[in-house]
Amino acid sequence: MTGKILRARILLPVLALGVAIAGYAWWKGGDTADPATRWRLEAADRGDVVQVISANGNVNPVTSVNVGTQVSGAIIKLHADFNSEVKEGQLLAELDPALFNAALAQSEANLNSARAGLRLAETKEARTRSLVGKGFISQAELDTAVKELEAAQAQVELVKAQVERDRTNLRYTVIRSPISGVVVARNVELGQTVAASFNTPTLFQIARDLAQMQIETSIAEADIGGIKSGQAARFRVDAYPGQFFRGEVKQVRLNPTIQSNVVSYTVIVSADNAEAKLKPGMTAFVQITANRREGVLRVPNAALRFRPPADPAQPGKSAAGASTKQAGGSGPGKSAGGRRDAAMRVFKVDGGKLVAVPVQVGVSDTTWTEIVGGSVAEGDKLVTRDLAGQGSAQSQMRLRMF
Q: What pLDDT score does 75 carry?
């Protein structure tokens, strides 16, 4: 038993050393691997590059009106409900008119009284003027009569205004539709009392035409430079998975929204809703085509992001002998603006070695980037990944675990 334990103690270190040597040889062998297996290569080709800006927003009618009341009272009749189609001027609801009828009757009575006072003042003024002409009374009495006549005329005008106001308030007890459209919201019930003392309560919301909808999206300031009226857009809603609807940028509003130092702008996207599938309030996931290049030379984005493994003899230098830091960042830019002309690099394999090729890039999407200058030609094989580097990292991890 003691002999077996002794042999195990001798064999375990030898076995561990052998595995370590084999792993090191495998790791070192990755640097001299066949280029076909060492690097993942993808070809530059010609095709379309479509730059898309994504945003979310809510679907709403193009024109919607909140219908309220300017007077207070109880709802005694409702003539429209949710989804009712209404015409301009159509009756929607009625408030209890009892108090307003009483106020109008009182004002009309006051008007009759004021007119009677006016007639008396006119008679008195005429009699006084006649007596002054005959010399029976003084001019001062005529002046007093004229003043009383003018006051009576003003009183009649004042009461007329009161009558007109009470008539208007009585008309306000009948709620009519200001536009033709569809009732999308009804916020009152029969018998409910509405108070218009401090603000105008909303009774109904009417959409003018649900065949045309719009989406209010929020676009970050970094992307707003690529958005213009007339650009094509498409969007989807959760109600119809997999189906995309067509739209168009209608308006880019200048008023910014600032939240937590993040600046964004509202962009309105119009959409046809002839099939009535879109409902007000739906959340839309919008994709706006900010830029499109057709039949251009393009390279995979992974080729622009690729960086050669570092040379241990020269820290900070790539295996191709060039610094891994370059203008424009570590990959293709994501600006929503137009063409970019920053100098960047891609890498080819020549004789088993990496060769850096400077390029100038244009429009970029999620997969491809347009090439507008440089020494890359259609069909060139470009490096997108270091496969041996991945194997080396996995090997080192296994050795550490062992």
A: 96
